[in-house]
Each structure stands twice: as structure tokens, then as C-alpha cells.
Amino acid sequence: MSSSGNRPARVGMITDQTGALSFMGIANANVAKMVVEDINTRGGLLGRPVELFVEDSATDDAVAEVVAAKLVEQIDVDVVVGGIYSSTRQAIKGPVVDRAETLYLYPEQYEGQECHPLIFCTGPVPAQQIEPFFPWLMRETGARRFYMPSADYIWPRTLNKKVHEVVGAEGGDVVGEEYFPMDHLDYERVVADIMASGADVVFNTIVPPGLTPFLEQLHRAGFTARGGHIVCTYFDENFLNLVPADQVEGLYGCLDYYRGVDDPFSIELLNRYESLYPGSALFTAGSACTGTYRALKLWEAAVREAGSLDQDDVIAALDHARIEQGPGGPAEMVPGQHHVRMNMYIARSEGGTFTVVRNLGHIDPDECEVADV
Question: Which of 37, 46, 195, 255 yields a CA-CA distance of 20 to 30 A from 162?
Fold first, then answer.
């Protein structure tokens, strides 16, 4: 990879512009365009314009792998940002990291444990979601019995292991745990099992396209009507648009940002995004918009500190990069971990919107030391 001369800085963005997650990916691309335009309006980066190349991963990991190779082999980008599903991150990792040895920033909340010198992760991990959230939930609601219907891939399986650990430590029990193909649509049997189990909480990691039929079938069975609680740590305001509000009334989540967060910078950023990109692709956290914003701004800060686009120098600066303002508050890389310390929030769905019920403050990612790998 070449970063010499005065050519423009090149950012590659891989996200779903079509497919089951297009409502998320379109928003992520919008955020990338907004940040890059802001950089260029302020004179660019080190006197160079920044060029953004957006590639559609189409909610298809094979497509993501192909466009990732295009970005590093044909366009010769300085950094790649993107990927939503963890399986997509793994598809991107092959051509970008393993073969081209190019810097990769992964923006989505995920299961953690990605520990590579060329990968930096800018979304929340289990230590920032499950560990502070579930003890609070059990204290607030009295819940003790948890059922975990799940998509069958790395993120749900790893997250559920953490749930077992945290719930057990708090004196609770996991009364059911099932995994389904990501395109599975019929959940009548597992809903019947949930109802028979006496579960207080359904911790959902089923993802689109199976998400909407699952929530409909769970609602029809009367789970929340009998006092049950739905918990979903990726569910945000974009997902609220997918289902009738009554199906997710009272749903709890834990993310690094909700649109109800009212610090002045978050409000200004949301208003600016909505003026530029009105419509249904909302600026949200679970959709990786916040992680995308954070990734690009931390990369910008690292390039400016390094004074060059030389990848080794940028990585050295990115290891401790920080931004004083961002969606949900300031953020900073934890040196050695390649993950971000950030504010976390617990929110509850009420009448078709999320109400923040607890600001957890700055939470450490508590991930592995990259230098030890």
C-alpha cells in the first residue's frame, strides 16, 4: 500500500446499501459522507483532500469480500471502514488485513475479542453492554429467568456466554438458549417454549430478516402482556421503524447513544445529519452510525498527530487517539486494546421511541492487549 506523495487521502467504506440491512448501511454511508465533507471543507487532511469510496456489501458476506479486495487492490485506500454483521467483518478481514495488510476500522457493536494490530473497533463490546446492563435490569425488574433466542453466528454465541456469566453471578438462570439460521422466519415453536418456560426476560439476538416475524409472534403469544421483558442490545430507533410500537413497548437496550441523549454536541450533530439526509435512514447507534463517526474522527486525529499517512505512524497515533466531542459524548482508544472507552446508556422503548433511563457514564471495553498477541 502506498501513501507517498501528495495524492488525496483515500477512505474505503463497505456497508449495506442494498439487502436486509440496507436501512442501516445507507445511514452509515451518509455519516461517512458527512464527516469526509466536513474534513474537506476545513481544508482537507495534511493539505490533501480526502476521497471516500463507498462499496455496497449487499448484506452478503461474499459480496463484502469482493468489494474489500477492490478497495485495497485497485483503489489503494489508506483505511477501510465498515461491516455490520461480525461475519461480514471476518469476510472483509481476509482481503484487507490478512492479504493487503491495510488498516481496518470496524464500527459496529459486537461480541469483542477481535485482537489484531491492524484492526481497531469503535463500537461497544460485552463489557460495556452486558456487564453493566444486566445487573441493573435484574435489580430494577426483579427478573431472574432468561431465555435467549439467537441467530447462529459468532456474535450471539459469544454474547450469550457473557450473559450466562453475568446472570449466574447475580443469582439468575438461563432457562432456554436456541440458535437459528440468519434467514429463519418461523418462530412459533420457540415462542411456545418461551411461554412455557416461565422466562421473565427474552434476550434477543435474532437479526433481520428473522427479527420482525419473531417479534410479531412473541407479541401475539402475550409475552409482554403477562409482564415479560424483551431485551435487545442492538435495537435502536432505526429498528423501531420496522415493527408496530406495541410489539416492542417496554423493550430495554444498552448502547453508546440514543437520539434522546441531550448533550449539546449530540443534539447539534443529529440536527446536522437530519438536515443533510432527511428520510428513513436515521442516525442511530445500533446501526453503527455512531461507531462510523467515531472511527473516522479518531482516524483523522491520528493522521493529524502522525503528520503523515504512513500506516505505521497512523497506527501508533490511533492507539491513544481521542475525540473531545462525539455522539453520546467524548471517546478515546484504550492504549494497547484497539477498542474505545465511551459513554453507555440504558434506554426503554416507550410509545415508539427510546427514553434514556440510565446514563452509565464512561465504560472501559476491557478487551485483550493487542501487543500480547
Answer: 195
